[in-house]
Amino acid sequence: MAVTIKEVAKRANVAPSTVSRVIANSSRISEKTKERVREAMTELGYHPNYNARSLANKSTKTIGIVMPNSAKVSFQNPFFPEVIRGISMKAYQSGYGLYLSTGHTEEEILEEVKQMVFGGRVDGIVLLYSRVNDQVMPFLIEQKFPFVLIGRPYQVDESLVTYVNNDNFKAAKLVTEYLLLLGHEKIGFIGGNLDFVVTIDHMNGYEQALKNANITVNESYKVYHDELKEGGQDAVIELMSNEHPPTALIVADDIMTFGVIRMLEDMNMKVPHDMSIVSFNNVMISELSSPPMTTVDIHIYDLGFKATELLMHQLEDPTIGVEHVIIPHKLVKRQTCKLDHGASRG
Amino acid sequence: MAVTIKEVAKRANVAPSTVSRVIANSSRISEKTKERVREAMTELGYHPNYNARSLANKSTKTIGIVMPNSAKVSFQNPFFPEVIRGISMKAYQSGYGLYLSTGHTEEEILEEVKQMVFGGRVDGIVLLYSRVNDQVMPFLIEQKFPFVLIGRPYQVDESLVTYVNNDNFKAAKLVTEYLLLLGHEKIGFIGGNLDFVVTIDHMNGYEQALKNANITVNESYKVYHDELKEGGQDAVIELMSNEHPPTALIVADDIMTFGVIRMLEDMNMKVPHDMSIVSFNNVMISELSSPPMTTVDIHIYDLGFKATELLMHQLEDPTIGVEHVIIPHKLVKRQTCKLDHGASRG
DNA sequence: CTGAAAGCGCTTACAG
DNA sequence: CTGAAAGCGCTTACAG
């Protein structure tokens, strides 16, 4: 079937070990021999067997991508394809392949990660989420396996894990302050799944901003749903059932916002006239909502790219130690926010 | 580091070959021994080394996913995450992992595919596209490597390749006829990249419907752009520059349609009042355009799932031969189409 | 029903 | 500068 190193060796009149060294471009082989071997390789159409190579030198040249819920669920939100775009770019540049987790439940995912680690399927992992009571991260730390987290560690010491994150607390505080400045005081918070650390950070930023403005937090203004359009729709129903419904909404995710806008429309409420909305993420299609949504660009692509870069650092130099990178966020003002009617301030 | 078969063997007081047979659940091992070995495995936390296993029995238990443009580009369109959802689901059920292509150019991708095939990185491939002058498919055929195409072969004999596809010709004919019935005669066609076979099929279906209705095809009503929102926007500019612009549009892809709607809005044209639109794909967010778009549901998830199922057939039984599956399409009527003003028919 | 041995295709000390 | 040999962790005929 496939051409092996032996056949190349025979053709080039050298030992297999020499061929191996030519592949590795060892400086101990003469240019003349190298050329001869390379010629034989192209003539025969040689391609190295990755399994053999991996087995011999314990390096697979592939990166594992671990998603919170399997592609099946996660890929319903453009956040994940977008991070993977960034990961893919850097991985390709560095000559790495990508291996995707496919498990659904937390147990299945943990089992997959064990397979990746013990089975020698990948050299390192990019963890695309940070969740409360997570089992995966402690496992990776315990195994001293190279990985980078997108998000921030929780219930685990920061000094133990390399991560790339946004300052989600600050971002949430920012958008809340923005709405406050527009005169809103009844601000609803539509968080993502509370199992995820990003949701906790958003929520804390929101509360902090309210506290700073001397507004007491109304618990019935806070709801949590999965980051899907359905989540956004359900959230609106909940919030609008309040006796005094909010006049502005902070929404954890742009896809939810699509659902939110649609549901408000169904309720005959105009955005931004009757409801202001600020969202998070700025995925590719966010500008295509109508009205175009105001959202926080968290530079998803960069999160993926940078995380992979840090992973490469670790793989190239295992002694490099922990690194932390915060990707800046940026409020993108479009057309879902306006001054509150009853507002007395400017 | 990781526990090997040897250590398990020692602990269970058997030979490594016996452990191997227990893993494979060979019927030639006594239940008693199996139990003893399994106990040892869990006690030691044994996980098989995939590289060693793959090397020894030439099976990786992973599927390669080959995209037209690397994740970097492809993932900008929700079509791809959505197919991968389907692939992921079936792959997980069958105990397979997923390996993703990362190359950008056609040459890079071909090189990656060679790596997958010769390097023994995957057992089979799901090809997510069919393009004119494609090099990848002929290579896979020549190598007799198991793969399934999503799309249909072009410049290659159908009897040589297992594929899953929609009847894109028929679907395009259908939507054209639908617009004709609504009284439209000036129907613009916004195709995807003409390198892709699906675009050709769409175009032919469109022309056939026009011919059947005795309407001559206006070449300036046909434009082709990449399947991105920008593509949709550019297409609108082109088409609206016609002396007699179309009153209805067939758009190759929902994401393009988002761009189309936005651009028309900028031109102060109302959909569907001033322009009817039918689109293809029905991705997750399609119903969230405003107005919600009328589109052909091609059941993307099913394409991925079914393709993977067919690939499994091949892997389980290499003699099974070629299979062809057509996934049905369905026109989802929402709110981007209406009767043409000047129409005399009903 | 179980074991000893060869082999999968590489890499890498060890010699020279 | 190059080669012979051992080894990576499995699987699988071959014996018994």
From TrEMBL, chains A, B:
UniProt keyword annotation of Transcription present: yes
Domain spans labelled HTH lacI-type: 3-57
Pfam families tied to this protein: LacI, Peripla_BP_3
CDD domains given in the database record: HTH_LacI (cd01392), PBP1_MalR-like (cd06294)
Gene3D superfamilies for the chain: 3.40.50.2300, lambda repressor-like DNA-binding domains
Keywords: DNA-binding, Transcription, Transcription regulation
UniProt-listed SMART domains: HTH_LACI (SM00354)
Record GO terms (molecular function): DNA-binding transcription factor activity; transcription cis-regulatory region binding
Keyword Transcription among record annotations: yes
Coiled-coil region(s): none
PANTHER family: HTH-TYPE TRANSCRIPTIONAL REGULATOR GALS, LACI-RELATED TRANSCRIPTIONAL REPRESSOR
Designated name of the protein: Maltose operon transcriptional repressor MalR
Organism: Halalkalibacter hemicellulosilyticusJCM 9152
